[in-house]
Design goal:
The chain has a single domain, classed as Jelly Rolls. The chain starts with 11 loop residues before the first strand and ends in a 13-residue tail after the last strand. It is mainly beta and 155 residues long. 10% of the residues lie in helices and 34% in strands. About 14% of the residues have low confidence. The protein is built from 3 helices and 11 strands; from the N terminus they run βββαβββαββαβββ. It is globular. A 3-stranded antiparallel β-sheet has the order 6-1-11.
Length: 155
């Protein structure tokens, strides 16, 4: 499910991926979309979360576009700044991930995990590239803790 990490992870998120490769999707926050035909990026053009959920067609405001990244086993993804604050991120709960639009798909094609869809997967054509999740995925999300109370742990 697409989400934003809370303030405990601010300003940087570091994710170490282990196990099966997956595609992580980044989508601009719904406040950064506007109805088709509405242009500009002033504060008045931004919409609420509820309005964004109801809309069937929208355009992203300038410089905010959805993108995906393939996370290979033993990979480290670090994101901060605009990606941290202005995007939702998530991994689809599916055994097959479409990866045509992944920004690094050409980099991972030599690793043998990217294949062409058989066309039997709902929503994918036979010429789409996919990653099949054969194993479980384990990830470690790291953060910097700015304040630690010494009295929390008493051994």
């Amino acid at each position: 499910m697409p989400h934003q990490d809370g303030p405990a992870y601010y300003p940087v998120v570091a994710i170490l991926s282990l196990g099966s490769p997956v595609v992580i999707d980044f989508t601009p926050h719904p406040n950064l979309s506007c109805p088709v035909g509405a242009h500009g990026n002033s504060a008045e053009d931004k919409i609420s979360d509820q309005e964004a959920a109801v809309m069937n067609s929208c355009e992203w405001l300038d410089n905010f576009h959805p993108f995906s990244i393939i996370l290979m086993p033993r990979s480290l993804l670090i994101f901060k700044d605009m990606v941290y604050s202005d995007y939702l991120h998530g991994i689809k709960d599916s055994e097959v991930h479409g990866c045509n639009g992944a920004v690094n798909v050409t980099n991972v094609q030599n690793h043998g995990v990217v294949q062409h869809s058989s066309g039997s997967v709902k929503g994918l054509d036979s010429d789409d590239t996919v990653i099949c999740r054969a194993n479980s995925r384990v990830s470690l999300t790291c953060r910097v803790v700015t304040k630690v109370y010494k009295s929390i742990f008493k051994f």
